[in-house]
Structure formats: structure tokens, C-alpha cells
């Protein structure tokens, strides 16, 4: 039910005790006249009460996020920062470094004054009030509320001993580090809150992305990522619990790809139900044989029929929805779509896209596209020709969008098409598969990236289009590159 | 003597277990958080004082709601001379009471479904929920955090709660379908 803003406003203000007598009468009238409004009011009160419970009592499952062995584009950045951190420590508590690094912009009820300059090694304590700092070189803004104790290490780094700090980090400040007792929080742009209380700390990402790593340096594990809306709690032993997590940062489409009644490229999701070799390895001989020898995948389990709705967005739930029973997550999965298709018109075509982790396409048994990530066996073991376009950024790989070889299809000619898409380990799966016809006019995003159409084998329903549009906008905003949905370029599944 | 020793921790658990739902009921009756929290404290205290009257095995919430309702009426009587006028009239109080009675089981299940639903919220709504309910930030603070006006922050929270309602209801429907 969509409520008008007046009702929203009245209800919110009522909860917070801000209604005037006239407004109380107005809300009473509304609740009395409109049973649906009353219903909504009761639901809101119940949910509000549950949310109001002390957060320790809220039965939120805390999810322990497994460390990923490999980590994408910010791993290099984080490594550089570890080095920088050591240099920072040498200058700590040494006021002889003369250039100030930050300036106090606002100070309420604390010992510092507006305009005061702060130097490397300066520590600030406050029992009450608010302090706002601006870091000079990077433009990082930090707003800290008491009780508070923090130390400025250098222009890119501070240590929070106690209190809560909200940071806004502009692009030139990316890489700014906040340390708590146990963690190093590296901003990957643009806004987050860190709170440190005895024995526990919390991080809430308001916008953009942060990386969290171990301060002790004892662990070589790659940092963990948090994204917009994520809240993490840290135990006294330093264990991180993500309250929730939007996995690959973009939408996972909800509609089971498409209804089974619509004809699309048939497929199945293959996985293993026990530990052992990674699933993608089983597919290497299949690809090598031009998709004719399937003996190597006989031992794999497969799920129900998986309709093809294009490859676009996140796929974290896919193995649970379409995988075999007893799907064993750590050995990964591969979705294989296969069938004969005819092009919308004759011409030379090539695929564009990328995936975390596996994505290849073969025409008449010959692989013509590899958009897999660097850690995919398809990328390392199969020698599929590929062009990388780092200038077109993508979600999860420095290589950017990949494009494949041109292949030619004549009018009405059906070709055998095989698409393999999958995940190496357990989560954070994302991908995009687009198609370009030579000579076709392609729109560009605001950032100058061509929006090749999504490769589809059926005309999407209006629900699908709505979801795809949402994803498209999201991707354009996040990575500057997205895709087009063009109903005139559908490939038809041949009878 | 032994029975009482056994009974008290159990009774405390009963209060804890139903505290949030009881709070929801009180909040529905008075319409604002501050009063509902005061009343919740009073009601929990009375429940504890009257614990001997509670028959083990009977419906705890039904008993607690009666006491809570009585406390709310008392609260209104006491404050009738003051500026605050009750949000609900007698007829509506009856509706709240009936709905909470008939949907007791359903509301109880909301609690368990909430965490998964928070996880599924769009990122801004999720951020606002985390900021407001977990970090305890006020609406003006959220407005600054998200760079929006206060009424937009308030609406963001309303929409987040609406999404949570839709989500818990659809999960409930699904689990009922599976069971039947």
C-alpha cells in the first residue's frame, strides 16, 4: 500500500510525540474513517516496537562473512596503505612535523576552538559536544561526537579510541583510514560512521564503500568490503559481524528469470553436492570438445530447468533457487544454457560483458567470448581470444568490459549457442552479457560508454523490463556503464 | 519455596519474550513512543508484582494486554486535564484490542522474520534503519547523514517500515502456504 505523504507525516510525528491538537484530531479522523489506514497504523506500531528493542535484544542474525581469498580492484590500494601506515607511525607523537593537517570547523562544548590547526600526533579528548574537522589536503570531513578520544596520525589517517565519528570522503580522499583498536577502516568513497565503545566497535556505511582489515597486521587475509547501508559490529575479539549485506552491490533480479512458458534458451545449474574439485574444472573438457563430450560433467548434480533471462546483475541467490539439492557452495557452480538460436537479422556480431567469476559463449561449438574474471579456470585454462577494455569500467575486474571475436550469421540461419556462467566459490556473483551487431547504432551513457543491448532470447515481460531498468540505472550510477534493453534485437530460440 | 524459585526466572523470561509485542500494543493505543515506553515499564512492573495471579500455561499476552489496557485508561484519566488528548477514541481502542488479540500469533512471528527483511531493504532504507534503530541516531542526524531534509528522513524511515511490513507479511504468507 502506498500512503500519501500527509499520512506518513502524521504517523511519524505522532510516534515522536510532535502532533499538535489539531493534527491529533486529523489523524484520529483518518484512522477512524479509513480501515486501511488503521491497519497500516497498527502494523507500523508493531514493527516500530520490534525495531525499538535494544539492539542486542533484536534477534538479528549476525552473519559471519567468510574472507574471500582473492579480492578485486581495491586489494592493491589496501596493500599500499599498509605501507603508508608504517610511515605514519614513525611521526606519531612527534609535533616537530610543522605543517598542520586539519582545521577545526566547528566545536561545541569542547576544549578546541574554531579555526584551530591540528598537527600529526595531536590527540583530542572531549566529554561532551561535537567537533567537526576538515583535513586540508584531502578535503575529508570528520564530525565527531563526545565522549570522544581520537588521534590524528597524518592527513590520511586517524585513530579512534572512543566515540563516534562520521566521515565524508571526497574523491581525492579515497583511501583515508580510520583505525579502531582492532580494525583499519579504509574509505573507498564516500561517507561512513565509525563508533568505538569499550570492547566493541561499529561501522555503518552511508554511501559508497569501505574496506575493513585487521589492525594487528597478523592476518594476511584480504580486507572485507562493506557497502552502502551495511552495518557491521565488531566483537571484543575483533570478529566482524555484518548485520546485513547487499552482496554484489547491484540488484539481484527477483523474477525467476522468466516464466517457463516463455520459450528461452534452456539451461540448468550444475553444482556438486560434496567437497572436491571446483565445478568449473569439470566443464573444461566439455568446452574443449566443442560441447559434444559431456562425460566429465556426469558426476555433477544439476537443478531444475533454468530459463534464460540474460546475464545481468547479481546472482547470489541463484544456486539456492535453481541449484541441485544439497548444493555444496565452496566448489562453486556453473549455469549452462544451450540451444539453437536465430539472429534478429543477418550480420556480424560480437559479445561484450564480464563476470565474477565465469562467463563464456560459444557459437557452433567454438568459443567466441570470454568475459570471465582473472581467477576463473575458463580464463586461465582455455585459450579464448579476448579483448579487454579497461576504459569501460565494470563491477568487479580491472580488465573492464571484455569483447569477443566477431562471428557472422546469415538471415534466418540457426546457430548452436552455448553460454556458461558461474561462480568459483560461494558468493558475490555478478555478470553482464551484451551483444553488438556491426554497424548498429548504439547509445552512450552520460560517461561515454556504449550501451550495447542485453543478450536475450525472449521478449521480456513488463515486470522483467521494470527490474532491468532499475538495474540499468543502478549500474550506470555505480560503474558508469550499463546496457540497453532493445526488444527488436531478440534472438529467437529455433524450433 | 522451590516452586517459586523456579517460577521467577521463568516469569522473567515470559516478560522478556513478550516485551516487544506488548510494547507494540501499548504504542498502538497511545500513538507515541515516549508514553508507550513509560507505560511499558509500569506494566512490566505490575506484571511482576501480580505474577502470583498468573496461571502457568495460560495465555500470558492476553493477561498482559488486560493489565496494559487498564494502565492506558488510567494514564488518560490522569492526563485528561493536561494538553494531551488521546489519539484514539473508545471505539478505536476496542479495535486495537481485538486486532492485537486475533493477530497475536502473527505479530509474534514478525520478530523472527525482521532480520532477514532488514537485509533485503534497499540500501538507503537499510542505512536509515541501521542509523536510527541500531546506532540510535535521531531524525535530524539521519537527515545530515544522508544529506536530505528532516521530513525526507522521516519519510525514509516510514518507507523502510512499510517495506518491512510488506516483507514480513509475504514471508509469513509463504511459510503458511508451505505448512498447509
Summarize the topology:
The complex is a heterodimer of chains A (495) and B (180).
Chain A: H1 5-15, H2 21-33, H3 35-52, H4 75-90, E1 102-108, E2 117-118, E3 123-126, E4 130-135, E5 141-154, E6 157-168, E7 177-179, E8 183-197, E9 200-214, E10 224-227, E11 231-234, E12 240-242, E13 267-271, H5 279-288, E14 301-305, E15 312-314, H6 318-322, E16 333-342, E17 347-356, E18 358-363, E19 366-370, H7 377-381, E20 387-389, E21 401-403, E22 407-409, E23 415-423, E24 430-437, H8 462-479, E25 492-493
Parallel strand pairs in A: 6-7
Antiparallel strand pairs in A: 1-2, 1-4, 3-5, 4-5, 5-6, 6-8, 7-8, 8-9, 9-10, 9-11, 11-12, 13-14, 13-16, 15-24, 16-23, 16-25, 17-21, 17-22, 17-24, 18-19, 18-23, 20-21
Chain B: H1 2-30, H2 33-49, H3 60-78, H4 90-102, H5 104-120, H6 123-134, H7 139-146, H8 150-179
Helix pairs in contact in B: 1-2, 1-3, 2-3, 5-8, 6-8, 7-8
Care to give the gist of this entry?
The complex is a heterodimer of chains A (495) and B (180). By secondary structure, chain A is α+β, with helices and mostly antiparallel strands.
Summarize the structure in words.
The complex is a heterodimer of chains A (495) and B (180). Chain A is an alpha+beta fold. Chain A folds into 3 domains: 5-52, no CATH class; 75-242, Jelly Rolls (Sandwich); 267-493, Jelly Rolls, CATH 2.60.120. Helices cover 19% and strands 33% of the residues of chain A. In chain A, strands 1, 2, 3, 4, 5, 6, 7, 8, 9, 10, 11 and 12 form a 12-stranded mixed sheet that branches. Chain A is globular. With 180 residues, chain B is an all-alpha fold. Chain B has 2 domains: 2-102, RNA polymerase sigma factor, region 2, helix turn helix motif (Rna Polymerase Sigma Factor, Chain: A, Orthogonal Bundle), CATH 1.10.1740; 105-179, Winged helix-like DNA-binding domain superfamily/Winged helix DNA-binding domain (Arc Repressor Mutant, subunit A). In chain B, 81% of the residues lie in helices and 0% in strands. In chain B, helix 5 (104-120) packs across helix 8. The longest helix of chain B is centred in the last third of the chain and has 30 residues, at 150-179. Residues 1-7 of chain B have low confidence and may be disordered. Classes of the chains: A alpha+beta (495), B mainly alpha (180). The interface between A and B is large, with 59 and 61 residues.
Amino acid at each position: 500500500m502506498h500512503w500519501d505523504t500527509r499520512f506518513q507525516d502524521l504517523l511519524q510525528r505522532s510516534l515522536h510525540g510532535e502532533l499538535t491538537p489539531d493534527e491529533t484530531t486529523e489523524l484520529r479522523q483518518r484512522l477512524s474513517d479509513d480501515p486501511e489506514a488503521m491497519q497500516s497504523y497498527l502494523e507500523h506500531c508493531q514493527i516500530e516496537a520490534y525495531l525499538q528493542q535494544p539492539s542486542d535484544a533484536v534477534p538479528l542474525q549476525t552473519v559471519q562473512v567468510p574472507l574471500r581469498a582473492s579480492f578485486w580492484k581495491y586489494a592493491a590500494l589496501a596493500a599500499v596503505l599498509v605501507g603508508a601506515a608504517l610511515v605514519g607511525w614513525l611521526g606519531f607523537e612527534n609535533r616537530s612535523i610543522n605543517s598542520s593537517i586539519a582545521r577545526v570547523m566547528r566545536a561545541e562544548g569542547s576544549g578546541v576552538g574554531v579555526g584551530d590547526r591540528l598537527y600529526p600526533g595531536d590527540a583530542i579528548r572531549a566529554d561532551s559536544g561535537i567537533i567537526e574537522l576538515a583535513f586540508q589536503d584531502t578535503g575529508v570531513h570528520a564530525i565527531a561526537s563526545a565522549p570522544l578520544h581520537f588521534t590524528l596520525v597524518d592527513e590520511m589517517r586517524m585513530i579512534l579510541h572512543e566515540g563516534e565519528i562520521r566521515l565524508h570522503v571526497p574523491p581525492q580522499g579515497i583511501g583515508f583510514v580510520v583505525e579502531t583498536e582492532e580494525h583499519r577502516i579504509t574509505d573507498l568513497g564516500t561517507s561512513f560512521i565509525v563508533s568505538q565503545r569499550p570492547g566493541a566497535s561499529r561501522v555503518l556505511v552511508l554511501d559508497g564503500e569501505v574496506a575493513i582489515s585487521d589492525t594487528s597486521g597478523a592476518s594476511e587475509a584480504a580486507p572485507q568490503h562493506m557497502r552502502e547501508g551495511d552495518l557491521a559490529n565488531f566483537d571484543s575479539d575483533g570478529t566482524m559481524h555484518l548485520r546485513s549485506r547487499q552482496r554484489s552491490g547491484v540488484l539481484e533480479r527477483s523474477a525467476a528469470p522468466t516464466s517457463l512458458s516463455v520459450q528461452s534458451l534452456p539451461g540448468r545449474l550444475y553444482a556438486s553436492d560434496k567437497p572436491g574439485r571446483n565445478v568449473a574444472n569439470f566443464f573444461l573438457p566439455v568446452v574443449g570438445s566443442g560441447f559434444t563430450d559431456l562425460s566429465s560433467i556426469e558426476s555433477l548434480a544439476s537443478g531444475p530447468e533454468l530459463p534464460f533471462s540474460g546475464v545481468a546483475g547479481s546472482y547470489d541467490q541463484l544456486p539456492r533457487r535453481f541449484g541441485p539439492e544439497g548444493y555444496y557452495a565452496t566448489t562453486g557452480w556453473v549455469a549452462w544454457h544451450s540451444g539453437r538460436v536465430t539472429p534478429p537479422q543477418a550480420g556480424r556480431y560480437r559479445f561484450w560483458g564480464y563476470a565474477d567469476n565465469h562467463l563464456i559463449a560459444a557459437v557452433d561449438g567454438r568459443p567466441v567470448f570470454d568475459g570471465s574474471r582473472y581467477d576463473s579456470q575458463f580464463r586461465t585454462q582455455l585459450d579464448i581470444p579476448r579483448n579487454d577494455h579497461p576504459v569501460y569500467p565494470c563491477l568487479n575486474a580491472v580488465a573492464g568490459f571484455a569483447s569477443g571475436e566477431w562471428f557472422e550469421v546469415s538471415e534466418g540461419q540457426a546457430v548452436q549457442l552455448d553460454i556458461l556462467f558461474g561462480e568459483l566459490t560461494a558468493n558475490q556473483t555478478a555478470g553482464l552479457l551484451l551483444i553488438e551487431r556491426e554497424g548498429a547504432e548504439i547509445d552512450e551513457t552520460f560517461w561515454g560508454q556504449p550501451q550495447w543491448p542485453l543478450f536475450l532470447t525472449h521478449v521480456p515481460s513488463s515486470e522483467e523490463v521494470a527490474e532491468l531498468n532499475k538495474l540499468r540505472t543502478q549500474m550506470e550510477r555505480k560503474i558508469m556503464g550499463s546496457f540497453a534493453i532493445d526488444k527488436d534485437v531478440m534472438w529467437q530460440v529455433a524450433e | 519455596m522451590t516452586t517459586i524459585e523456579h517460577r521467577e526466572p521463568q516469569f522473567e523470561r515470559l516478560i522478556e519474550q513478550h516485551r516487544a509485542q506488548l510494547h507494540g500494543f501499548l504504542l498502538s493505543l497511545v500513538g507515541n513512543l515516549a508514553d508507550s515506553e513509560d507505560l511499558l515499564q509500569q506494566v512490566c512492573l505490575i506484571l511482576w508484582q501480580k505474577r502470583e495471579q498468573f496461571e502457568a500455561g495460560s495465555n500470558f499476552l492476553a493477561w498482559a494486554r488486560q493489565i496494559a489496557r487498564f494502565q492506558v485508561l488510567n494514564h488518560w484519566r490522569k492526563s485528561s486535564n493536561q494538553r494531551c488528548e488521546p489519539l484514539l477514541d473508545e471505539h478505536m481502542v476496542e479495535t486495537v484490542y481485538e486486532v492485537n488479540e486475533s493477530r497475536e500469533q502473527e505479530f509474534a512471528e514478525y520478530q523472527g522474520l525482521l532480520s532477514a527483511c532488514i537485509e533485503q531493504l534497499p540500501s538507503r532504507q537499510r542505512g536509515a534503519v541501521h542509523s536510527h534503530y541500531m546506532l540510535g541516531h535521531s531524525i535530524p542526524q539521519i537527515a545530515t547523514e544522508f544529506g536530505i531534509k528532516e521530513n525526507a528522513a522521516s519519510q525514509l524511515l516510514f518507507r523502510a517500515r512499510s517495506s518491512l511490513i510488506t516483507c514480513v507479511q509475504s514471508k509469513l504468507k509463504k511459510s503458511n502456504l508451505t505448512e498447509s
